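Changelog-adjacent note: as of this version, every example in the card shows the full chain rather than a window. The one below runs 281 residues end to end.
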Amino acid sequence: MRTTSTTGRRAAVLGSPIAHSLSPVLHRAAYAELGLTDWSYDRFEVAEAQLPAFLGGLDPSWAGLSLTMPLKRAVIPLLDAVSGTAASVEAVNTVVIDGDGRRTGDNTDIPGMLAALRERGVTAVESAAVLGAGATASSALAALSQLCTGPVTAYVRSEARADEMRGWGTRLGVDVRTADWSEAADALTAPLVIATTPAGATDALAQRIPGRPGTLFDVLYDPWPTALAAAWSAQGGPVVGGLDLLVHQAVLQVELMTGRAPAPLAVMRKAGEQALGAHRS
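Full-length structure tokens:
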């Protein structure tokens, strides 16, 4: 039988911009299914310079925070502890606040990526390609460190980004090789391609998909499908989307913040799909 909470706990997603975030939809759906009737989950527009004051103003009702850009690295000096997963990529997307107000940072993007891939049957690959660089790309490398047995080629737009990705590879134990973005079509022959780029950045690649594509993991969820994802599916290749990642990382956040497991994956995914469908219509 489902139990009901009367603790009156709060959580929220912070970032800038934040109006587009689906996190409130997912977390509220989880709370309703778990019977956490006195839990609330909101969104707040918080820039990097505003983050210390926001954290300093939290009262004991707060249980946790989800963080998006540009706060994933900015929050680290403001925390009492950071998990090994988050420390490995210097990116925190989850803050758990205990009853004493102690703040612990974690990263659910990395295990969320792995869970989304496992759900589609991807548990090991001999090589992979990453399109783009930055925080999401470093999380992708951390995930690949657990499932890719060979080299990972990162396609980037500058030598500075190439140096950064090679540095992450050294730190994470991944054999990272780099190539210029002008050669990005070569990435599409890899057994696993992870696209971490902004909307529109990979559209030109949609006409370059090989005859027998591997798996595409495109981290975007709006707009969806991207031109690349749509063309990939049309060619018969399996596609993992940004909503898959968002839901799996949110499942882990709900479990960390509420202490209730398992979080209702199917319910959360359905809520996300409905919200995106309403937005598109």
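Structural remarks: The two ends are 37 Å apart (CA to CA).
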